[in-house]
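The instructor's notes for this session suggest beginning with a concrete chain rather than abstract definitions. Hand out the sequence below and ask the class to guess, before any prediction is shown, which regions might be ordered.
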Amino acid sequence: MTAPLADTRKPRVIIVKTGETYPQIRECCGDFESWFVRGLSSALKLSVVNVVAGESPGEPTDWDGIVITGSPAMVSNRDLWSERTAQWLATAVAAKVPVLGVCYGHQLLAHALGGTVGYHPEGRESGTHTVTLTESAASDALFGTMPSQFSAQLTHKQSVLSLPPQAVLLGTSDFEPHQAFRIGECAWGVQFHPEFTDEVMRAYLAVQALDIESEGGDAAALLAAVKPAPEASSLLQQFSELVLSGRF
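After discussion, reveal the predicted structure:
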C-alpha cells in the first residue's frame, strides 16, 4: 500500500490591516503589513486584508492563524468596519484559531470578548518601555519562553481599561496595567508593538514630537531613550512557530 503524501501546504495566516501609518513613515519605513511580514516566519503563507477598505477576511476557519494590526482609529468610536471585525474575532476565538492582536488589535480583541476600551486616563504612551510578565506567563504557550522583563516599543492613546471575563493577564508596565493577555486557548492581545524596529519607533516620535510636547511630555528624552527591543520582536516568530506546530 502506498503511504499517504505528507501535507506540504504552508499554514495560511491572515494579516488583518486596520489602518495605515503616517505618510512620512510609510515613505521611509513602509506600512503596517510590511513590518509584520518581516517579523513573521517565511514558512507561513501570508495574506493581507484591509478591512478598513471593505475587504473581506472570509471565514475565520479559512485561516491557520490571524494577526490584527495597529491603527490610527479608536476602538471606542465603534466604526462599522471595526465592529464587524470584532464580531469576526469573537467567532475566531470560539473556533480556536490562533489570534495575535497588536495595539488596536489587542484592544479590539478585548472589546470583542466583553472587555472595556477607552482613552488611558494619563494620556499618550510612546517610546521604548519595560514590560513585566505575570506569573501566569511562565506557563503560557506564547510567552512561556520570554524573559520576565523586556523592552518593547509602544505608541497609543487608548487602552484596555478592563479585561474580558475569563481573560488571563500576562504582562503589565508602570503606565499600562494590561500590556498582554490571553483569552481561551490561543488568542493573545499585546498593547506593545513587536513589529516595530527602533528605527520605526524613532520615526513615530519624530512625527509625534509637537503633540507630545503640547501634552506635557518630553519628546527629546523619549527619543533619546529608544533602543532595540529584540525580545518583544521575537513574539512574532514565536507566534509563527505555534501556528506551524498545528497544536491548536
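Then share the key points. Helices lie at 23-29, 32-39, 80-94, 104-112, 198-214, 219-224, 230-245. The CA atoms of residues 23 and 31 lie 9 Å apart.
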